[in-house]
Amino acid sequence: MTEPSPTPPLQPIVPAYHVRILSDEQLAQFKSATLEILEETGIHCPSEKAREIYASHGAKVNQETQIVRIPPDVVLKSMSSAPRFYTMGARSLEHDIHLDGKALYCATDGCGVETIDFVTRQRRTSCKEDIAKMARVSDYLPSVGFYWPIVSAQDHPTVAPLHELDASWNNTVKHVQTETVMDEKMAEYSVEMATVIAGNKDDLRKRPPLSSLICTIAPLAQDRDGMEAALVLAREGIPVGFMSMANTGSTGPVTIAGLLAAADAEIVAALVLLQMAYPGTPVYHSMMPGIMNPRTGAYMSTAWEIDIAYAIGVELAHMWGVPTLAAVFGPDAQSPGWQSAGEVGSGLLLNALCGAETGSGMGLLESCTVLYPEELILASDIYHRVRITAGGLDTSRTAMALDVIKEIGPRGNFLRHRHTRDHMRRLRFSELTFQAASNGDFRDPVQLAREKVDWILYNHHPQPLDNQQRTELEQILASAEKKFGTI
Amino acid sequence: MITERPAIEPIQTDFRLKFATDEQLDMLQEATLRILEEVGVKFPSEKTLRIFSEHGAHVDKDTQIVKIPRQLVMKALSTVPRYFKLGARDPACDLQLQENVTYFCSDGCGVETIDFETRQRRPSCKEDVGKMAHIADYLSAMSFSWPMVSAQDYGTTAPLHEMDASWNNTVKHVQSETIMGEKPCQYAVEMAKVLTGSAEELRRRPVFSLTVCTIAPLVQDKEGIEGALVLAEAGVPVGFLAMPTLGTTAPATLPGAYVVGDAEIISAIVLMQLAHPGAPVFHSMMHAWADPRSGNYISYSQNSGGRYIVVDMAHHWNIPSFGGAYGTDSPVAGNWQSAAEVALDPFLIGLAGAEFVTGMGLSNTYTLLYPESIILDADIYHRARYQLMRQDISPETLALEVIAAVGPGGHFLAQKHTRQHMRASLKPAINHEVGPDGKYRDPVEAARDKVAWIIKNYQPEPLEEAKRKELIRILSAADRELGGGRK
Fold it and tell me: Is the ipTM of this complex over 0.95?
């Protein structure tokens, strides 16, 4: 059996600088807008269970239209119990993520539907094995703070979300966040699986190795199964976030401010529900609206105009006193190249400077749908450029090197000085650029990234689950498949 | 059909980021003052040594090293104008340097071109300069123009021919980085006076400016510094660009490299102010790294933030900053590396608040022109421009009444508000051009087509015939006197 290899420590982005986009007055305008929408227009809530909770906590519920209107005092009271910081646990203690407002941790993208095959390079439908392999690659990369099952386990259609968790936990010691557990029963099974990983219900609550992201439906609507799954997870203290993906001019107002106001109302209505049901349960806010292409109607996540909306989403989350999952990476590009790199770097940096705690989106192309395995390595390179750039400047006496400069003087050179030798090794260069080929040229970074994936898969084998945990996960999967109908 | 020149779109932002604290900037400034006082800078020009000597600097005529007491540095810098105007052929394109606005231009002095028609790599020529000025004239991202490549078909007077080609193809301000020496600078002033009509008007609205490189460590170039004095006398803005390389011509630590470069720049600016108090000057630094394995010049490590602390340093001296952005090390345009390296640049330098910035459009570390690169770099520029743009949050853009009218589960397509704002909601980026098959086009191909489209469909305002002939007359005289001219 292969000896387990250590998982490198996480390297979050810890910005030395911060940017504030909205003034206090503008934040107040957004808060007031959300409160007005929730009070006057309301949210469509098709879950009877959720409506009961809303009603019993002071919201005005129309059972016929399923519209829930929430008075401002009820919204504010509910949101006051949401924790600003908490821990996202991992299989290994040292890979726990302690959200503290000082660092940004990024995840892979998730739920892609096609994979460029690791060996044949042919485009094909995604499968569970892809999730396992990419979990292993992610486990090795210090840029990946936590893992989203990167594609869909389409070879296990009945309980794919649970197989995605199984493939993830079997291949990374890092925290796992799902975006596909979307109904009550599936949520119950995933709680069971997470409890196996955590060891017991207490530890599941203290260091939840699982969190979940649920999408709302724009405009101003909720998915019944999604909300009922969220309630199950919140009951156990598993962090749950809500993401709005409103689109300009179709499912949201065409102006960015209006788009954000409607999207924020969707998210806050869902957060309020969880706090009503389980005060203090960990939640997060996630804003990922798009720009509609006026010629085609397509959702565009990387138009010039939209990056600022993602960063404003970070500030809105903080205004409500909850952490954020920022929309980062996720290029619209159709293959790794100029576009996939050009679309993402500055957006990541902007979100980091605004104080985002978490973000997701590394490794998929074609608007979050297609897995090119090497894209995760390329995205990781950009991540480190942002991380190091955001990290500040050392102006110690040694770094200033005044004595060395005096010694060398005009027209000299610094090559032979001990200070140069000491510090040269600490400089940080990309592992993908400036790699010499045998003919003296530099190698193609994309090809190097492909080779890096192969290298990791060959050499990196994270600490496996113990046999009992693995067996228990298999038993839960078997039981779930039986329940939902095996194919 | 006449295609109009789109208006210049500089980066305008209310956000500002200081990459170094005041304390760090004080430390860096103190280090520069100590270097100037204790180590000195070599000025291999008798004329400049005389100026320094007359004003009280310590000049060693044998070594040509000038040591400048801090009181003299501070006194000389007190006459530097904080903001000034860059004139243009068309006064509508004059650029008034000011807070919170950043003007960009192309890169310059490339030596090879991927031919516009044959796509073969060949030495650059005057016609390339003209064509790229033509393109820059059209692009809203280009506030002013650098001659992008060297007019190598014109020998020693190439820099003057570059100005001729530029002024014949753009109405925007032109900045040279190649006019070196007293005589060529005198000819350049003569040419500029043809455009402005008089010496007074040239001083009031200088239609060109010059960047002069210093030599690291701590040396000035004789021709460069003597040429600069000619322009300073005429009121033409002159900047000094230091390019320290970590580990060879500068210490291997960033602050060490900064203070070496800063001392070079400040010593030159002090000279200009001693000779011509109040002359418009600017501060510019683009450091690089020596590849520890090969000694190769690397302009992009993973730390881009370091590029922009120099903006804070210039401002700490109360001098306008001419920032260095772009200039990928990638040998090929339009690939992953060429975007990954530069994607943070315009965003960071806009945040840093540089007054003006070079240089879009060259690959292979500022040496190789792929005509389409300027379109791709301009695309990345606009992404940053939108990221840094102040958002309009008002009752009209919040659209609360529209949200209420649509309600949960509706759509915004039929709303008047959508129709009214739709056109402004999306500026088409190069990434989102739709092909005949309905799919997004390859952005690199689209950029090539855009170059051809601009050349074919857009005609810059031509120079008046009399001025054009006058420039030719001056060029002929320069060719005769300096031994240049068409090869």
Answer: no
